[in-house]
Each structure stands twice: as C-alpha cells, then as structure tokens.
Amino acid sequence: MIELLAPGGVLAREMPAYEDRAEQRAMSAAVARALEDRRALLVEAGTGTGKTLAYLVPALMSGKKVVVSTGTRALQDQIWRNDVPLLRRIVGREFKAVVVKGVANYVCRRRLGELASYEDGDEVRALVEWARHTTTGDRAEVEWLAESAPVWSDVTVTPETRIGPRCPHFETCFATRARRAAESADLVLVNHHLYFADVALKATGARLLPEHDAVVFDEAHQLEDVATEHFAARISSMRFGLLVRDVLGAMSGPLFDGGVVGDVERAAVGLFAVAREALLRAGAEATIEGTRVPLPPGMFASGAAQAAWFRLDTALEEMARMIEERGDAEDEPKASVLGLLARRARSLRDDLASVAEQHHPTRVYWGELRPSGTTLTASPVHVGDLVRRLVLDAGPVPVLTSATLTVADDFAFTRERLGLGEERADELVVPSPFDYARQALLYLPRDLPEPGEDEFGEAAAKRIEELIAITSGRAFVLFTSHRALRDAARRLAKVPYPLLVQGDQPRAALVERFRATSGAVLLGTGSFWEGVDVPGDALSLVVIDKLPFAPHTDPLIAARMRLAAERGADPFVAVQLPQAAIALKQGFGRLIRRRDDRGIVAVLDPRIVTRRYGRTFVASLPAALPRTSVIEQVRRWWTAGEPAVRVPA
C-alpha cells in the first residue's frame, strides 16, 4: 500500500500532477493499522495531505466493508466523481462502490407521475425525460435545475412522507435501489446526516444502511453538531403545515375539509403565534436571523401557551384516530398512505410534548425564528455518551479525520465532545505539506478597537479596504454574524472591486461567480468558513473580522458552559475557546489550497495578540507561519513576491 502511494508507484503513474506526500503515506499506514487492530483512530490531516486517498486506499485493500461518511453531500459527490474512478485504476483489485443519500435527494417516481398528470411545464417535462434514462435518480445529476427550484420538492419525498414497501413503485424506487446496492458493496459513501439517521432508526428495528466493518468519518469536526440535531426533538410551523397539506391531499369529506384538519391547522397557528411572541420578547429582532433563543422555563405550564398546547395535542390525537379509522376501510396502497399520515401526526404529538413539558434535565429548550417559520427544539446538552454508545462502540471500527480536530495540537476537546477517553482511540496529527513560511503571511493588527467597542465596525471596514487594495481584491472576508456582514457590506459598497455578498445568491453560485470574476471580494459568514475551495490566484486574501466565539447567550452554548462548570472546569476554556480555535482554523484553511498558492490571512480582532487566550489561537495555526502587526510589512511582503521574514506580532 505504501509503495502504491510513493514516488514511482501506481498513483504516480496514473496522476499527471502527482506530488510526493509522505504525510499521506503516514496517515494511510495508521488507517490500515486501525482497521487491522479494530481500534478507533483520530487523525488530523492538514490541508493538502491528500487525506481522502489516505483512508480510501487502506479501506479498499483491507477487504472489509467500509462506510465513508462525509460532512457534506458536496464531498460525497466529489469522492464519487473524482476519487472512485482513480481508485479503480490503482488498487489492483475489483471493488463495488455505491453512493447512498437521504430519500429527498432522489426523484420519487410516484410523486413525479402525479405531478406530470396535471402539470405540463418545461421543468416537469424535462424531469420526466431525465427520469426515463437516469440510473440513479440523484438530484446531483440535474445540474440544469436551479438549486432552489420549488419543483424538486414536488417530485421527491422525505423520510416522514415515504410510503415504503407498499408503494407500487417500491421495487423501481431509486432510493430502494441505492440501499440494496449498498448491501453488496465494498465501499458505501454517505453523509453524516444519513449515518445518524440510520443510528436513530436502529432503535426501532429499521435500517437505512447495511451492516459494515468500519466507518470513516471525514470532516469529523461536524459530528457533534449533527448528533445534536438528530438526537433532538423538534417541532416547527413548517412541519405542521406539510402534515396538513398531505392529509388534505389524501383525504376528502366534511370531517376532514375544514373539520379535524382545520382544528389542527388553527391550533398549530395559535401555538406558534404564542411561541413567536415569547421568542421575540426573549431575543428581540436577532431571532429573525435564526438566532437560537431559550424558551422561558415553564413556558407551557400555564396560561395561553398551555391552553394552545392542549388544543393542539387534542386535535392531533383526533386527527390520527380518524385517519386510522379511514385507513382500515381502504385497500393498498391507500391504506399505507393513511397509516403513514397517522404515524406522522402521533410523532408530532410526541415531539410537541417533549418540547412543551421541559422536564428533562439533560436537555436544553430553545426556539428559532426564520422567514420560513418558527421552530421549537429540545436538544441534548452533551452528546458524547450517546455518540460513544450508539456510534463509536456500536461495532464498526471508527476512523475520524478532519483538517481541524485539535486545539494547539491537542485532541482533548474532540475526545471530550465525542465521548472518546484517552484509552479508547489512537491519534495522529499529520501536518500540511505546504510551505507556509514561504506561501502565507498572518496579519494581526494591534491598533484596532476591540469588537465590543462602537468604533470597531468603521475601523475594521477601513482596514479591509486597505488590505483588498494590496491584493487588488481577490479576497474572502469572513464574518461571525449576519449583522456584521450587512454592516460591512454597506460600508464597503463603493470599493473599486466586484462585491459579492452572501444572501444575494445561493452559496454555490456565489463561489462560482467569485472564481470567474477577476478581483472579486466575497463577504460571507457561517457556511463560507469551511468547505469552500478556491485554489489559485482567484483568492489571495482571507480577512476574518472577529475571533469566532460562539455567543454565550446561545442556549445550547450556555447549557454546555453550565455543565462544564458543574464538572469543575472553566466554562470558557472548556467550551468557547477550543470551539472558536477550531472555527478559526477552518477559516484560515480557505487560503492555501495548493503548493503554488500564496496569500495573506488577516484577523482584525486585536484580542488575538492582546489577551492571554490569543496564544491558543496562534498555536492552533501552522507553526512556520510568519506573522506581523504592521500593515506596511504586509504590503512589502506581497509586492516583493519573496519568502517572508518572521516579524514579531
């Protein structure tokens, strides 16, 4: 295996742009040992390591059935399109690989047929023609359909709305075919959300994925968030709206039209109106951006909120009962559709009770307002025990890898969050092969106000203008909040470079415009901090406005900090600081993607050099990275085109 990846090996012969990566071989050997010894492994693999092949080669050569779980569908598709064909040429043995996604990613033959029977638009006709010839039914193939096109939701299903084996199209269903193909595959490509959905279903005796010997979690730094989402109870105005729509579509008659369905709809509107008012009082306008706001303790214990809960609970129970009675008199597949609707109503009733009762001491209760509606959630405060018991100790050998698993080269934070004690997993840090001493400069200004001061926004915008003038645009400017992004977009509106702002277009479209537009400046937050790959001259500057501390007012963060304090730890050091350090590493990783890249990373928050905890952030970045606090030094370094000399920050 090592020879396969080494200079002169099969990989070198098959890849015209092959580069020797000793780090890749070290990781590959560690993964092979983990699979052989059946022992968990944590691997932080720096950008440019080639970690995908580093785990795929030993996985395939082990002879074991391996599931690879990625943080995003984009990486899942990338492995399928780029790495699997290469592996077929280099591993020297036949293997079967399949991609399995959630059902919402596959066109539903039943829903498509229903839509085509009464709608004859261009998009529908094109989807019908595509469905005749596709072998996968995967949304990723339909590149001509806009990402946000509403027609896709009309021709697919969700886990809640899928009929299953009683559907007349079940045997030819694309989701069914993908899951059956996975049974005989050597390599199964999924994403974290699907993997955890499978974990959650195991408790009911159902499965989405086949039994497997090992699982590789790529982008494993996302596991805690995904697990928290899947182990939460959640109700939303949208979820109720979809149930009402689907019941009305399947039922008819006065008992349903405006009867029991109307009771549920009116009761749901009433409950979410009360909830929305309470959330606005608790979190004011910030909740419009989707900020999590704690539910007031005992919110549903009395008064209008309790009355609204009881009305909705009663209406849901009555709806489920009446649907079941109607279903008993129907033939298949109508009875299956009605049975599914009844189960959805009862599931919503159970989740409503979980949120409204607010009695579980290990959960935190919060709400969220968005333009699309209101969501109320009961989330586990700490998922480490659940992840360890249901995933890491469940049988398959776990390999967890990412470019950002350590804080100052220490895995302690990741281990604690995922329930991995010191004795439970081996660990390896594989540094990036990039020459950061030559390729990059870190700019840490001392002369700006701190983010909490009123003058920070204006001062930061002026410094951003100076920096993008040095690189003639070609910049990502990353923000820690939507409010800061909007403020900066207003202040930077007249810069002499194409300005692309998150929210103006879908993320993928903005990134493509950035790549194609000379000298563009992209302002982003949230999802732009990771998973965005722009190698080459198009990106020469990454500016980070503030250290990415999660707000202590966030109910989930606050609950985790309280738990840390109860366990005798410093909440800031145990929760906020390591989480922010990993987020900063993700933002930093947007810049250098190839050996010939060159550029500047600027962190405008002076606390990184003026506060003691700033050392943790700096120690989490590449050790050879030169840095300066003087913008003139940044200008000279960029224009000289020569390796930087380390300047004390």
Compose a concise summary of this entry.
With 649 residues, the protein is an alpha/beta fold. Residues 643-649 have low confidence and may be disordered.
Topology:
Blueprint: H1 2-5, H2 10-14, H3 22-37, E1 40-45, H4 51-61, E2 66-70, H5 73-90, E3 97-99, H6 109-118, H7 122-133, H8 151-154, H9 174-183, E4 187-191, H10 192-202, E5 214-218, H11 223-230, E6 233-236, H12 237-250, H13 256-283, E7 293-294, H14 303-328, H15 334-357, E8 363-370, E9 373-380, H16 384-392, E10 397-402, H17 412-418, E11 425-430, H18 436-439, E12 440-443, H19 456-470, E13 475-479, H20 482-491, E14 499-501, H21 507-516, E15 521-525, E16 541-544, H22 555-566, H23 571-588, E17 599-603, H24 607-610, H25 614-619, E18 627-628, H26 631-640
Parallel strand pairs: 1-10, 1-11, 2-4, 2-5, 3-4, 5-10, 12-17, 12-18, 13-15, 13-16, 14-15, 16-17
Antiparallel strand pairs: 6-9, 7-8, 8-9
Strand content: 5-15%
Kindly report the spatial arrangement of strands forming the biggest sheet. Answer: 3-4-2-5-10-1-11
Helix fraction, binned, reads 40-55%
Overall 3D shape: globular
DSSP, total strands: 18
- Class derived from helix and strand content: alpha/beta
Radius of gyration: 26 Å
- Termini separation: 44 Å
Task: Summarize the structure in words.
The longest helix is centred in the middle third of the chain and has 28 residues, at 256-283. A 7-stranded parallel sheet has the order 3-4-2-5-10-1-11, with helices on both faces. A 7-stranded parallel sheet has the order 14-15-13-16-17-12-18, sandwiched between helices. The protein has a 4-stranded antiparallel sheet with strand order 6-9-8-7, with helices on both faces. With 649 residues, the chain is α/β, with parallel strands linked by helices. The protein is built from 26 helices and 18 strands. α6 (109-118) runs antiparallel to α7 (122-133). β14, α21 and β15 form a beta-alpha-beta unit. Helix content is 47%, strand content 13%. The chain starts with a helix and ends in a 9-residue tail after the last helix.
